[in-house]
TrEMBL record:
GO terms for molecular function: 3-demethoxyubiquinol 3-hydroxylase activity; metal ion binding; oxidoreductase activity, acting on paired donors, with incorporation or reduction of molecular oxygen, NAD(P)H as one donor, and incorporation of one atom of oxygen. It is found in: Mitochondrion inner membrane. InterPro entries: Ferritin-like, Ferritin-like_SF, Ubq_synth_Coq7. Belongs to the COQ7 family. Keywords: Iron, Membrane, Metal-binding, Mitochondrion, Mitochondrion inner membrane, Monooxygenase, Oxidoreductase, Ubiquinone biosynthesis. It is a peripheral membrane protein. It catalyses: a 5-methoxy-2-methyl-3-(all-trans-polyprenyl)benzene-1,4-diol + AH2 + O2 = a 3-demethylubiquinol + A + H2O. This is 5-demethoxyubiquinone hydroxylase, mitochondrial. Its main location: mitochondrion. Binds 2 iron ions per subunit. Fe cation 2 binds at E93, E145, E180, H183.
Amino acid sequence: MLRLSNISNNSWRLIQCRPILQQSKQNVATEHGSQQMPETTTTLRKRPTQLTDEIIRVDHAGELGADRIYAGQMAVLGNGPMGKTIAHMWEQEKEHRRKFEKLIQEHRVRPTVMVPIWNVAGFMLGAGTALLGEKAAMACTVAVETVIVEHYNEQLRQIMASPKPDKELLDTITKFRDEEQEHHDTGIDCGAEQAPFYKAITEVIKIGCKTAIAISKRI
């Protein structure tokens, strides 16, 4: 643990760091200028349980992928009639991603090694379906959000069944689950089911999402 001592001398100020349990009386001299300790905003917690570790790693990967999917849709459809709708959903996904990035740091969870791949794959999926038209993009949204909502519901059951449920994680996932359900409903309202080959598109995307979840749990 370090103690910060502020020393004033005319027009300049030095910040000197030294251990609290210092056995010698040797002073640390600092030349002209000032030193500042880097600000830390992350509070480290105890190592998480295996369940919490897995949930944070997988959900971080999932929200990263969702963020990139909407980024791809915005790149293609951002200036069109669906632009504001997609932008609204994307902003919520950005917040989801930021929250799990924060939890990863606080709990010292190892992210999946697949992060770079999910980053690229998510953008390509979003942009690729958007190139097929607005309804196809919404079909993609419906498929992805269907899997995410089911996944979050399963995690909520696991957390509530654990000996010491993590209330913060429970509240976070509940909130995000509700927002993902809203995205799903928005996709339906915006004509997702009218997309060409709707069932085929959504089934393929669902399989891809479930596969990504299974992989992220393990590596």
